[in-house]
Each structure stands twice: as C-alpha cells, then as structure tokens.
C-alpha cells in the first residue's frame, strides 16, 4: 500500500528470534497464489507459527497475544534471510506493519520491504535488546520512528539512535512514490535530457 512516511509513533510487536527467514515469514506454498491482495498475504504472515497443524490459533505466538499490537515489528538479528521472495514483504505490509526494526536485515529482503512501503530500520544490537526489554516490561511501550531525521526513539527510556537509508528510497517513502511514480514525476526532466543528448 502506498502511504507517505513522516513520523510514526506506535506500540510494537516483539519477535525476539534471530535468523527469521522468508519461508517462516510466508511459507512457500503461498507463492503459487495468483493474487496480490494484501489481506491474503497479511492473513498468512508467519502462518506456520500463528496456527497449529489443525488450523486453530497458536495462542503462544505473539501475533495472537492481545497484549501486543501496533504497526512496528521489532525482530531479532538477521531478519528476512533465505530466499529472495518478494511475497515476504507483501505479507508484512499486508498485515499492517509499516516499520520493521532489527539489528541486521538480509539485503534483498530489506530492499523488498522498501519497495513495498515498509521501512526497515537497522539499529545496534544493544539498542534492539533494550527495546525488547522495554516491551516485555510494558507492552504499551511506544517507539517513534522519524524518517525525515532518520532517528528512532524508545519512548520508555528516551534513548534514540540514527539509522541509514538510501536517499532515493527516503524520497520515495516520504512522497508515497514507487519507482514508476518517480519516473512519471520526472518525465519532463527525462525528456529534456534525451532532447539535449540528441541535439534537439
């Protein structure tokens, strides 16, 4: 979903597991879908963790715990490893997460998130562990993600860190643009460049 980013303040869903791969995010059997419907993929985010083998809810999994909610997922180190399936980013966006915070992302998955209007925020391992502790102490803990200033703040402690983001992707997120929108927005500049190159 194309949504402009500015400052997001939200409670968080903690997933303190390392090496969460894309098959765990969205199992391979859902890759055969012929739809891009957000609800379909969102409903199947972490499918094999959210549901038991008989299809009933796994009450022990964090997405099924009413204590936790919000549009920020806080995940352990090396999030999105494994295959490069874009469906994993579709599922995260389809569920309603707008930000994923981790100390390390697999590169392809990180770019897939950016392309699907989900902001991956890389923080230090120490800051990440502090977030997990704050959320465990109080599930209503809020985190502020300030994209213009590239800053993330743990509202429970006041501690903040800066994060890196590609300038082009930052522009696109802040303006609600995908790659095609960006080209259309700059079509006059592109035409002018081509005319100059052709000597027109």
From TrEMBL:
GO cellular component: 3-isopropylmalate dehydratase complex
Domain of life: Bacteria
GO biological processes: L-leucine biosynthetic process
UniProt keyword Nucleotide-binding present: no
Catalytic reactions on record: (2R,3S)-3-isopropylmalate = (2S)-2-isopropylmalate
Molecular function (Gene Ontology), one example: 3-isopropylmalate dehydratase activity
Pathway(s) annotated for this protein in UniProt: Amino-acid biosynthesis; L-leucine biosynthesis; L-leucine from 3-methyl-2-oxobutanoate: step 2/4
Protein EC: 4.2.1.33
Domain (Aconitase A/isopropylmalate dehydratase small subunit swivel): residue spans on this chain: 4-125
Keywords: Amino-acid biosynthesis, Branched-chain amino acid biosynthesis, Leucine biosynthesis, Lyase
Role summary: Catalyzes the isomerization between 2-isopropylmalate and 3-isopropylmalate, via the formation of 2-isopropylmaleate.
Subunit structure: Heterodimer of LeuC and LeuD.
Family membership noted in the UniProt record: Belongs to the LeuD family. LeuD type 1 subfamily.
UniProt protein name: 3-isopropylmalate dehydratase small subunit
Source organism of the structure: Phocaeicola coprophilus DSM 18228 = JCM 13818
Gene: leuD
